[in-house]
Amino acid sequence: MNLDVIISYIPLYIEAFFLTVKIGWLGIFLALAIGLAVAFVIHFKIPFLSGISIVYIELFRNTPLLVQLFFIYFGLPKVGFTISAETCGYVGLGLLGGSYMAEAFRSGFESVPKSQTESALALGLSRKQLFWSVILPQAISQSVPGILANVIFLLKETSVFSAISLMDLMFTAKDLIGLYYDTKEALFLLVVFYIVMLLPVSIIGSFIEKKARFRTLGV
Amino acid sequence: MEEILKVNNVCKRYEDITVFENMNLTVKKGEVVVIVGPSGCGKSTFLRCLNALEDIQDGEILLDGEKVDAASKNIGSIREKAGMVFQSYDLFPHLTVLQNLMLAPVKVKKRDKKEVEAEALTLLERVGLLTKKDSFPRQLSGGQKQRVAIVRALIMHPEILLLDEITAALDPEMVREVLDVVLSLAKEGRTMIIVTHEMQFARAVADRMVFIDNGRIVEEGNPEEFFDNPKTDRLKQFLQTFSY
Question: Domain of A159?
Fold first, then answer.
């Protein structure tokens, strides 16, 4: 492996790294918002909306991200909406992630015993207070492991962004290989940068997971 | 004396099962009513109807003059008037003892945090749990949890306390510490409806005993008459199961 080549590539990878992280996390925050809303609608059986939500989950969980991105990026302009590759990236990731996050939140909601609702109502709490102060905090600490697994999964899924010409890590690596044939160096840096992106998430994640478990279960 | 609770001809049915029907009960301010009866007789369900945790199919329940109905707009403020303590404590596991106590007064009654905290600490001291104020529920014994649950109901200043088999899930040596709290509440004139299987305690605390069987009030009266001279065979039979 040629060290000089590696060093000369690093600035390009850093640029791609920040783009990947930015779009990845924008997508993840969107996914969390969608997932929470969808899980709420399904768990509390909100009429009409819960039907739509179930269709949404099944649709996005059972189609590949690449296909979803193609639909948004190449399909939407055909009906008059043009969006940039970046927007397409995080919207696509958010929609895919939302369907996974919804399931994680839903299992959290289901883990809160009905007696919690009853004791809160008996104290005079409104439905809204019950949700925000009693159910959600308990549901989230149960959902943490699922949410974390999804976050890591979604960050890795960003590698398909290259297909819609986003200059992410994967795109940069493929581009450099195509231009200079320094395959070993380009792939080595690709792996290193993905690990740099994901390892902290895993480590901080398992710490949060432990804290959340301790909070509710005491173990 | 002022009537706090009035139950008129209340019926509870699930599809084809009748849990109870034609229930009538009046509770006056300061009165302690103890309800006993065999398992499955509907006594817990009856208690849960009183603050609309269960709906009723017929009749009406008036709490402090207001109709109890889960669908009514101010059901929250009606429920505030009936503090409830459950068999399984049901403290909020993600909050400390102090936070458990402060949640409802601050969120529901919009009371000042400092003032609520001071009251919470006074009440905790009274039940001997001041040192546990920053503990989480999982760090407490069953008896301690139940005392916290009682305080959590008290701090809302309810007109009436509904205690649903609050010692049924406790180890025997912890029953005492919880019942002592209830006895002291009775002495200070709290209005309470207590569902329990602790007969000696019932006798000590009750102003009036009510015996429910098969979804009906079979017999009621003052504790001496009730325990020493039961009128119905059904009650005699029931009380017999508690003596050796």
Answer: 3-217
Per the listing, tokens 């007969």 go with B199
CATH number at residue A55: 1.10.3720.10
* Cβ–Cβ contact B136 with A under 8 A: yes
Q: Which of B56, B1, B63, B47 is nearest to B28 (CA)?
A: B1
Measured between CA atoms, the residue of chain B closest to residue A134 is B92
Tens-digit pLDDT profile for residues A104-151: 999 999 999 999 999 999 999 999 999 999 999 999 988 999 999 999
Q: How far is CA A27 from CA A89, A149, A193, A196, in A?
A: 8, 15, 19, 19
Q: How many domains are there within chain A?
A: 1
Among chain B residues, CA nearest to A136:
B94
pLDDT higher for B21 or B117? B117
Contacts of A120 in chain B (CB under 8 A): 92
Interface predicted TM-score (ipTM) of this complex, two decimals: 0.90
Query: Considering only CB atoms, which chain A residues are within 8 Å of B82?
Result: 122
Q: Do B138 and A134 touch (CB under 8 A)?
A: no
CA A133 centroid distance within chain: 25
Over pLDDT 90: what percentage of chain B? 84
Which tens digit of pLDDT belongs to each residue from A28-83? 999 999 999 999 999 999 999 999 999 999 999 999 999 999 999 999 889 888 88
Q: How far apart, in whole angstroms, are the C-alpha atoms of residue A119 and residue B216?
A: 27
Residues of B in contact with A125 (CB under 8 A): 76, 103-104, 107-108
Residues B139, A218: C-beta atoms closer than 8 Å: yes
Whether residues A122 and B51 touch (CB distance < 8 A) is answered with yes
Its domain, for residue B82, covers 3-240
